[in-house]
Amino acid sequence: MYKFTKLFLIVSAVVSIAAMSNPGMPADEKFQNLKVLPKNITDEQLDSAMDQYKVSLGVRCSFCHAQGPEIDGKRHLDFASDSKPEKQRAREMIQMTNYLNETYFNPDHSTRPDTIHAVICYTCHRGNQEIGRAHV
């Protein structure tokens, strides 16, 4: 299981790097309320990033995203909502990893720290929502 998780994270990081270096959709944005992720992110890039966060923290989408209205008898998530504090915390953590990667793992002085994945969520979380003292 450990080897599979490690392989999955490596493949996810490579896919994320390749995907985020592609400019993506036009500036008219189809995603609402993006505050940290690039405004021109594509569906594939966003899905890849969200999958990486889910695996890294061992959570589901509803950990950060609020429940939306019921449509056709099914509950849906309101991805644009900021009503859950976990979503703001996730943004802060993304900014922190971007800062760490840009400051300490960026020998070429890239202006795109979101494409440098020396430090990712899994680096500290290891599949847990909270970081235990044993991981630090």
- Summing up helix and strand content along with how strands pair, one would put the structural category as mainly alpha
Instruction: List segments where confidence is low: pLDDT < 50 over at least 5 consecutive residues.
Output: 14-27
Terminal residue distance: 22 Å
Radius of gyration: 16 Å
**Rough shape?**
globular
Percent range for helical residues? 40-55%
How many β strands by DSSP? Answer: 2
What is the string of SSEs from the N terminus onward? HHEEHH
Can you summarize the main beta sheet? 2 strands, antiparallel
Tell me the number of helical segments per DSSP (H or I, 4 or more residues long): 4
Q: Would you tell me the overall average pLDDT?
A: 81
Main sheet: strand order: 1-2
User: How much strand?
Assistant: 5-15%
Indicate the topology.
Blueprint: H1 2-20, H2 43-57, E1 66-71, E2 74-78, H3 85-104, H4 121-125
Antiparallel strand pairs: 1-2
Helix pairs in contact: 1-2
Task: Explain what you see.
The structure is a single chain. With 136 residues, the chain is mainly alpha-helical. The chain is built from four helices and two strands; from the N terminus they run ααββαα. It has helices spanning 2-20, 43-57, 85-104, 121-125, and strands spanning 66-71, 74-78. Strands 1-2 form a two-stranded antiparallel ribbon. Helix 1 (2-20) packs antiparallel against helix 2 (43-57). It starts with a helix and ends in an 11-residue tail after the last helix. Mean pLDDT is 81; it is low at 14-27.
